[in-house]
Specification:
Sortase, Chain: A, elongated
């Protein structure tokens, strides 16, 4: 009887040892899952909350700085001829998820057809460099007030919470198409609610030279990121040709990603100059 009892002891010990090993594995797996979950949560908080706080603060400071400078320093009219706020760099400098349209416009911007501000000739100024802010965009319908910077680079412009001006498109107030891009989500998300705009809503662009008011005229809910027609001088979608214009004018184009939290398609808002 004693021999049989002794033979059973190792079996019991092995079972307990196996259970302890399994428990340790499960505990380690649970800790790993929790740790990964916390890291993912922190990443989401950083992307959806912290980047917005940082970018909005910087954008707000830039708007105040620009307008304070303009209020102190009046416009300077140069006699060297019309200049452009754009550069001829390719608009493809921004990433596909930045709310921009891939591809550059076919023409460089021109200020020569800008409305006169009382002197008979539009003021001219040196074109801003990539990343430089030169205008303030306001959309009362969605409570937006944001600086506009030259170019659509993520690091220099869009991720700072600014709206980017497509290189090669028109200057504010000029004949042609003032094409702008902005984030729909994260990094200040200035164009988060542009889908709420309706025909007739006003949009203003203030520069050192003056304030230009546009009125929303058409909205293209969905198009391809490669639909370069929407930012041409006479904007018209090459994907959905029923959207757009057929004659020269003074246009404003806003582009951003859609649906929200994706970069699969583009949402486009067009407006025409009123004053």
């Amino acid at each position: 009887m004693r021999d049989r009892g002794r033979e059973r002891v190792p079996v019991v010990v092995q079972a307990r040892s196996g259970r302890r090993g399994l428990a340790r594995v499960l505990w380690f797996a649970a800790e790993t899952v929790v740790t990964c979950g916390v890291l993912i949560l922190l990443l989401v908080v950083h992307q959806l909350w912290w980047t917005n706080q940082q970018a909005r603060a910087e954008a707000g400071e830039q708007v105040a700085l620009l307008e304070r400078e303009w209020d102190i320093s009046p416009p300077v009219v140069e006699s060297s001829g019309p200049a452009s706020p754009g550069v001829t760099a390719s608009a493809s400098a921004a990433g596909s998820g930045a709310g921009s349209v891939t591809g550059a416009p076919s023409a460089s911007p021109s200020r020569s057809a800008a409305p006169s501000r009382g002197s008979g000739e539009p003021p001219s100024a040196s074109p801003p460099s990539s990343g430089d802010t030169f205008a303030v965009l306001r959309i009362p319908r969605i409570g937006l007030s944001v600086p506009v910077a030259q170019g659509i680079s993520k690091s220099k412009v869009l991720d700072k919470g600014y709206v980017g001006h497509y290189p090669g498109t028109a200057a504010p107030g000029a004949v042609g198409n003032v094409a702008l891009a902005g984030h729909r989500n994260t990094h200040g998300e200035p164009f988060r609610y542009v889908n709420r705009l309706r025909k007739g809503d006003e949009i203003s662009l203030r520069t050192r030279e003056g304030t230009y008011t546009y009125r929303v005229d058409q909205i293209l809910p969905v198009t391809s990121p490669r639909d370069t027609g929407v930012i041409q001088s006479v904007p018209r979608s090459i994907v959905k040709p029923s959207y757009g214009y057929s004659r020269a004018g003074s246009y404003l184009t806003l582009t951003t990603c859609t649906p929200e939290f994706t970069s699969r398609y583009r949402l486009v808002v067009w407006a025409t100059l009123r004053r």
